[in-house]
Design goal:
- The protein has three domains: 162 residues, 2-Layer Sandwich (BirA Bifunctional Protein, domain 2), CATH 3.30.930.30; 98 residues, no CATH class; 49 residues, no CATH class.
- Helix content is 37%, strand content 24%.
- It has nine helices and ten strands.
- α3 packs antiparallel against α4.
- The protein is globular.
- The two termini are 21 Å apart.
Length: 321
């Protein structure tokens, strides 16, 4: 089981992220501590915010008071909701959050079940929860839980496997679910600055996206249609409107992601790794296949654009790191 801890300052954002999964039928609440859990399962961000904030004093010094962890069992692990809830509670207790308010969510948006737990890193007296060697302690806890619940061990797995994406396979059917399990995490994981870059990444997972622009009743509209593709790149099945997958993969949501990506790519100099890897791969490569192989060793895919004569006139490098 892989645990991924995030800390931040935006409690509303963490809760809203989980509410979106619940609203779309891709998540549900499995348990809570010191927070009201609606009997009908109708999660409300504002009401939960009030419950959380009543627990802490009006003023505290911790700049990042929000704790948000995802617990990712191996895809082959088969656990009931009760077992998942117990795992969530035991993890929080052992990490030192047993007396903190928290909500446990189950997500099914990436083709397998995993947990998200939202809590506070500040106690009722305004003191920060001890975070000394938190990641090391978290790993020890997940290993204990693996043994207790007879789970597949995470040892030897990359942390990124918790978010591993699987290309759409038209032979497996349920294309809507397969597409959803790729586009939603992909849109939040990758940095892309244009719709063209977004389309390039999607093509690696056998998904096509088309832009729709027009006018209806005198008002302009724009939207996106997602389709599965076969091994030859041909669209298969009925196109699906982005609205059925949620706002994050619609036109407006992707535009916001592109703006943030542009800022982060520049501020964090994210291109440096890609440029260095491409430069090194070009040196000594005697063929396209050799060049591709060297890039893949660095976690990079390349898409070439060719003219009718087969000559390359452009390339897109997709750095998965």
């Amino acid at each position: 089981m892989v645990a991924k801890i995030n800390i931040g300052s935006n409690l509303y954002g963490a809760l809203a992220y989980n509410q979106e999964k619940v609203d779309e039928g891709l998540g549900k609440i499995l348990g809570s501590n010191l927070v009201f859990e609606p009997a009908d399962g109708q999660f409300n961000v504002s009401e939960s915010m009030n419950d959380f904030m009543q627990f802490v004093p009006a003023h505290f010094r911790t700049e990042k008071p929000v704790f948000h962890v995802s617990l990712n069992p191996h895809p082959d692990d088969r656990l009931s909701d009760d077992q998942l809830a117990d795992i969530g509670r035991e993890y929080m207790e052992k990490l030192g959050y047993g007396n903190q308010p928290y909500l446990i969510f189950k997500h099914e948006d990436i083709g397998r079940e995993h947990l998200h737990i939202v809590s506070l890193r500040v106690d009722s007296e305004g003191k920060k929860i001890d975070s000394f060697k938190e990641h090391e302690r978290s790993k020890a806890i997940t290993e204990d839980l693996e043994r207790k619940y007879n789970l597949h061990p995470a040892e030897g797995q990359k942390r990124s496997e918790g978010w591993e994406l699987t290309p759409v396979d038209i032979s497996k059917g349920d294309l809507k679910k397969q597409i959803a399990s790729v586009i939603k995490p992909l849109a939040s994981m990758y940095h892309f600055q244009s719709m063209g870059e977004y389309k390039a990444v999607l093509s690696l997972y056998n998904i096509n996206v088309e832009e729709l622009k027009g006018e209806a009743k005198g008002k302009p509209y724009r939207g996106l249609l997602y389709s599965a593709m076969d091994s030859e790149g041909n669209k298969v099945g009925n196109p699906l409107k982005s609205s059925i997958f949620g706002k994050s993969v619609g036109y407006d949501g992707l535009e916001k992601r592109m703006e943030k990506s542009t800022e982060r790519i520049k501020s964090k100099n994210l291109k440096a790794h890609t440029l260095k890897a491409v430069s090194e791969a070009k040196q000594g490569s005697q063929s396209e296949s050799e060049f591709r192989a060297k890039l893949r060793q660095q976690g990079i895919d390349v898409l070439f654009r060719r003219n009718d004569e087969g000559r390359i006139y452009g390339a897109t490098f997709i750095d998965h790191t």
